[in-house]
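All the exercises in this workshop are built on plain-text protein records. A record pairs a protein's sequence with a compact description of its fold. Backbone structure tokens are a discrete shorthand for how the chain folds in space. Once this layout is familiar, the rest of the handout is easier to follow. As an example, a complete record with its sequence and its structure tokens follows.
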Amino acid sequence: MAKVAVVGVVGRTNAGKSTLVNRLVGEKVSIVSPVEQTTRNTVRGIVADPRGQLVLLDTPGLHKAVGTLGTLLNRMARRSAAGTDITCVIFDASQEPQLEDVGWMQRVAKESLDRVVFVLNKADKRPFFRSMFEDAWKEALSGRPEAEGQPTPSPVWVECSALSDEGSKAVMGALFAMAEDGEPLFPEDVVTDYPRKLAIADVIREKFLSKLHQEIPHELGVCVKDIAESKGAWSITADVLVNRPSQKPIVIGRSAQTIKSARKNAEKELSEIFGVKVSLELWVKVEPNWMKNSKLLSQMGYMGDLV
């Protein structure tokens, strides 16, 4: 019988969760950028392996929430860890433990989670703060309320670099060691069940993030409005949302270079993903406070059953 597990991949923002999930799956299922809060939805990446199947839930990174969207993302991250078979907490161990790192440790300790993997990511960086994370875990355990009959959680610690195959193998081994016998949850050829419109929106947003860097990333949203399909070709219309009129020319760029580059790069990647020729029509729209607009947030997949 094969091993099967649903794994909640959690941690603070920009710890390397999406990079690790993509490495484990063997294909890109989550967008990646150095910008915080790149992942805004829970993305399922499905690992097919001779040992069995892992369903990895790549969650938004926990961060100091600002506004409706930030609160929704934090709530999504916490709830995604609930009800999973294994909790895999990713730490950026090239930095000292942050408040959100300690928060995840305290949750593991308080809830006595019994199948937990602590991944100390970015082991290729120096300095590397393993001992500080171990001390933080001891402190989290010391503050754990005594509960009769509650076992003391004992996470498996794994050092890795999400950028290397060797590091991902160690994580995979730890996860399969905790998985239980069961029937696969998805067909072997499925790598994600992420809704198509949301996946397309993520790719488009990633291409803008790579051009805009820190200018307006948190206030940029993408909403796919229409997908017109013909044989071997898709024509996709999407709105690129900003909060203020002053942000619109930044997103468009001088001589429209920014939006042209984002469109071209997104078309190329989407064509490779879906195996059809993709043409994009992008409209930059000013939607004041779109991150507080429940209707828009629902269309973009951020609401779900979280409210």
